[in-house]
Amino acid sequence: MGHVGSSLIRRGIALTALVALATGSAAAADRVLKVGVPLLPPSFGNPFTATGLPSGQIWEHIFDGLTELGDDGLPAASLAVAWQPETPTRWVFQLRTGVRFANGKPFNAAAAERVFQWLLSEPGRASIVGNEIRSLVAVHARGSHELVLETRQPDPILPNRLIAVMMVESDAWDALGVKGFALNPVGTGSYQLITWQNAGGATVLVANPYAWQPPQIDRVHIYPLADHATRLQAALSRQLDIVGNMRPEQLSFLRQRGYRVEIDPGKQILAIGFDTTGQPDSPLRDRRVRQALNLAVDKETIARVITAGTTRPAGQGASPITFGYNPDVAPYPYDPERAKALLAEAGYPDGFAFTAQVVLGSYANDVEIYQRVQQDLAAVGIDATMQSSIFVDWLRQYVFNEWRSEAFSLAWNYLPYNDAMRPMEYFSCAKAHPFFCNDAVRQGVQAAAVEMDRQRRAGILADLQQVFHDDPPCLFLLEMGHIWVYGEDLAGFVLNNRVPRLADVRFLERPE
């Protein structure tokens, strides 16, 4: 059997650095919000290189999009206050007035247009975010605070897509270049970046003096602590006010110590994807084999024991809170005998071996989850090696479909859109350099991509969930949320798009 976790490259600062930071006056501590996270953005402050974690743990506080994800799961106002389709392929966005970037320069329709023009350029199109808005063909300012976006075809979720498009200050972007801007990002967010790593190892954010949403706390230190034990010890010793990605079995202990717990509902489906286009000789190309893997893993036990009931088994690429979820599609049952029969039918009665590259530390207890997956697969004759991969290397393989293994960790991430079509696109032929291709899926995704009627579109997506279940492009595992804890002396803690909205957090008055 393969191994998992032994080659994990740990990043972040040691606990001793946090201990050094604990010295100083109580008044100084009150002015600094200290946050622990597993990782910093691999590309620092270039917000066009990713759409999820860990990058969002920093970018959400520095940048704003035209829209954001609302509490109801729909796009809500941010830098744009209203929008509507003028024609099936033309959207008009009314922008917020009086907004400035952290360097004092105004944000308006012309500034937004410059950001989109870069994303429409050749290097912009090649970026992760540029690919997310590939339906866009033209953007122009119509007056000082009205922006017109033209799409190649009807795009019913364009406002959802724009949640991922962060507004950068284009003069700084041009003057510094992409790499220089990544080290010195300038946005309209509540905070601006001072340094990626101070003497204590912290990324330092301070209040943006021009913020249209000024924060309650002026200074934030964010510590990258890859190790779960280090984050726990830092929390228990009260050296951190907010800590992300905690382990489920730690929660009762943390509650006893006065921490409050916030678990966002399942907004991603943890899965192991299969490369069926770049590995022509792989057994995983056979549908029966892929179904067998899904039947071989006891997801109920994983959810109950390893994640302490904070997750649920998954059998499709969405959870009940997602637009496009199909309540009639149940997770695969745990049926190792049926799995063995399918393997024999496919010509692998003695099983086979494969390797999966997995990024560790992105989800609570993911090491233990992958270990249990290995054990269950071994029980039906499949020798799965879980090889740890650093995110930056994993991302390059994902973008170009140049996998060095037959399988890989890949969540169905329907955030920031909260729309099932987003992950369907990258688990299908619609992805540039696809790793899985099914014609029925291709046709369904194409239909959902242009259907402007909300009810009909929901039906198309629900039907696609059944197709993905029956012809699985992955080993579906769990509906995953993210676990955060925060001190009882804090108020205003709210999770938005998986990360705390730090601008709203404030310290409660402490008794003398």
Describe the structure.
The protein starts with 14 loop residues before the first helix and ends in a 5-residue tail after the last strand. A hairpin with a 7-residue loop joins strand 8 (191-195) and strand 9. It has 512 residues and is of the alpha+beta class. Mean pLDDT is 90; it is low at 1-29. It is globular, with a radius of gyration of 23 Å. The protein has 18 helices and 24 strands.
Topology of this protein?
Elements: H1 15-21, H2 26-31, E1 32-37, H3 56-62, E2 67-69, E3 75-77, E4 80-87, E5 90-95, H4 109-120, H5 122-125, H6 128-132, E6 136-141, E7 146-151, H7 158-161, H8 170-183, E8 191-195, E9 203-207, E10 219-224, H9 228-236, E11 242-244, H10 251-256, E12 260-263, E13 268-274, H11 287-296, H12 299-306, E14 312-313, H13 336-345, E15 352-358, H14 366-378, E16 382-388, H15 391-400, E17 407-409, E18 412-413, H16 421-426, H17 439-450, H18 454-470, E19 474-480, E20 483-486, E21 490-491, E22 495-496, E23 499-500, E24 506-507
Parallel strand pairs: 1-10, 1-11, 15-16, 15-17
Antiparallel strand pairs: 2-3, 4-5, 5-7, 6-7, 8-9, 9-10, 11-20, 12-20, 13-17, 13-18, 13-19, 14-19, 21-24, 22-23
Helix pairs in contact: 11-13, 17-18
Short description:
The chain has 512 residues and is of the alpha+beta class.
List the defining traits of the structure above.
18 helices, alpha+beta, 31% helix, 7-stranded mixed beta sheet, 512 residues
Structural class: alpha+beta
Strand arrangement in the largest pleated sheet: 8-9-10-1-11-20-12
Query: How many whole angstroms does the radius of gyration measure?
Result: 23 Å
Helix content: 25-40%
Report the end-to-end length measured between terminal Cα atoms: 59 Å
**pLDDT averaged over residues:** 90
* Count of individual helical segments: 18
Beta-strand segment tally: 24
Ranges where pLDDT stays below 50 over 5 or more residues in a row are 1-29
Basic shape: globular
Strand content: 15-25%
Sketch the major β-sheet.
Answer: 7 strands, mixed
